Amino acid sequence: MLPHASIKDIPETVQAGIRLRLDDLERDEAIRIVLAVESGSRAWGFASPDSDYDVRFIYVRRVADYAALFAPRDVIERPIEEEIDIGGWDLRKALALGLSWNPALVEWLTSPITYRESGWEADALRRLFARPLNHDALVRHYYGLASKQFARHVGGRSAVNLKKYFYVVRPAVALLWIETRSDETPPMSLPLLLDGVALPADVASAIVELRERKSATSEFGTGEPIAALDRFCRERLSWAEARLRKSALRVSGAARRAATDVFHASVFGLAAPVFDVRD
What we know:
The protein is an alpha+beta fold. 51% of the residues lie in helices and 13% in strands. The longest helix has 20 residues, at 135-154.
């Protein structure tokens, strides 16, 4: 069993630095940050010792900013400093992307490493999007990730950069989760994914060995393709292709109304809305 990612994996000094930067952002941008999480290899469960801290957040602006003739950007980004890569989305943008079944948002909402959560908005977003309402969007997302990385780094090669396997394996395992646990959203953490699915023994042992090697060094070079992982990834891609040929994405009117209620209540400082996303 692989260890799960958690806030305890982040050094206290780094946590303090991240929270100071979040405080600075709130003050400088006149925003309220409702959720800030780790999103990247540290949250996925296979970071290298020198991996950046990928901090992602969702924020709300003042009423006057939303009513302004020249509205501020709906994205805030800052240069990487001291290995901290920080950026965030306006709540309006997050809601709109959620209604478009944006899986990156789902991963933020389900990150195992949370730096800040204030107010009721993050929980409302999870209720809206982290089930999610349409698993076909996640199939598209994880199929896109796995197929792109497999073609670029693994398929047909006599020598493979071994760490690149993780960029294929994580979405491939997520696809297996979607097939076998259709009533639950796959977690973003690879260890949590692995705990929730049944893998062939040779695939499971290969993943554990790779993860242990990557956690000990920043780079561990190339090697021969790993047949068990190649076979597993090809099987998952074939399953996703067959499903996507039959799928159609749909956004319910109830979900649109609920998202609007969440936005209005947050911006105007109202109580958390009660909603039902079933039509």
